[in-house]
């Protein structure tokens, strides 16, 4: 007697959230070279869900503080911003605030290293 195979299909339906907010202060210069971005005092790394939110986050970052976009990927929701430690932190705080208060996203605690 053969066993009947069962098939399960899982579907992931993400909510509106920032899944990662991390600030790296004074990263090793090699990191900038490997990432192919301009060297600065800090890197801010964020991941947004749904991924298109990263376009809004990038716009907010450059309007909120004197930072540059190091990397923005609308397909994965990844954002890297560069600038001084205080400017990167200010941009990340504004992104979290706006997405939470205006668009109803779940914010992410900003961690630092």
What would your notes on this structure say?
It is a single chain. With 113 residues, the protein is of the alpha+beta class. The chain has one domain: 2-Layer Sandwich (Alpha-Beta Plaits), CATH 3.30.70. Strands 3-4-2-1-5 form a 5-stranded mixed beta sheet, with helices on one face. The longest helix is centred in the C-terminal third of the chain and has 17 residues. The termini are far apart.
Could you list the spans in which at least 5 consecutive residues all have pLDDT below 50? Answer: none
Helix count equals 3
Give me the secondary-structure category: alpha+beta
Whole-number average pLDDT? Answer: 90
Main β-sheet, in a few words?
5 strands, mixed
Strand order of the largest sheet: 3-4-2-1-5
The CATH H-level homologous superfamily: BMC (bacterial microcompartment) domain
The termini sit apart by 59 Å
Task: Please indicate the percent range of residues in DSSP E strands (runs of 2 or more).
Answer: 25-35%
Count of DSSP strands? 5
CATH topology tier name: Alpha-Beta Plaits
Identify the CATH class.
Alpha Beta
In the CATH hierarchy, the architecture is: 2-Layer Sandwich
Shape: globular
Query: Could you estimate the helical fraction of the residues in percent?
Result: 25-40%
Q: Can you write the helix and strand succession as a string?
A: EHEHEEHE
Q: How many structural domains are formed by the residues?
A: 1
Radius of gyration, in Å, reads 17 Å
């Amino acid at each position: 007697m053969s066993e009947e195979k069962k098939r399960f299909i899982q579907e992931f339906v993400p909510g509106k959230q920032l899944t990662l907010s991390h600030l790296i202060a004074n990263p090793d210069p090699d990191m900038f070279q490997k990432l192919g971005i301009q060297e600065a005092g800090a890197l801010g790394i964020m991941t947004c869900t749904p991924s298109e939110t990263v376009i809004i986050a990038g716009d907010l970052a450059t309007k909120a503080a004197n930072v540059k976009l190091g990397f923005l990927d609308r397909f994965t929701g990844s954002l890297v911003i560069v600038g001084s430690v205080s400017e990167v932190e200010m941009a990340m705080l504004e992104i979290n605030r706006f997405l939470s208060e205006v668009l109803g996203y779940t914010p992410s605690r900003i961690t630092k290293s």
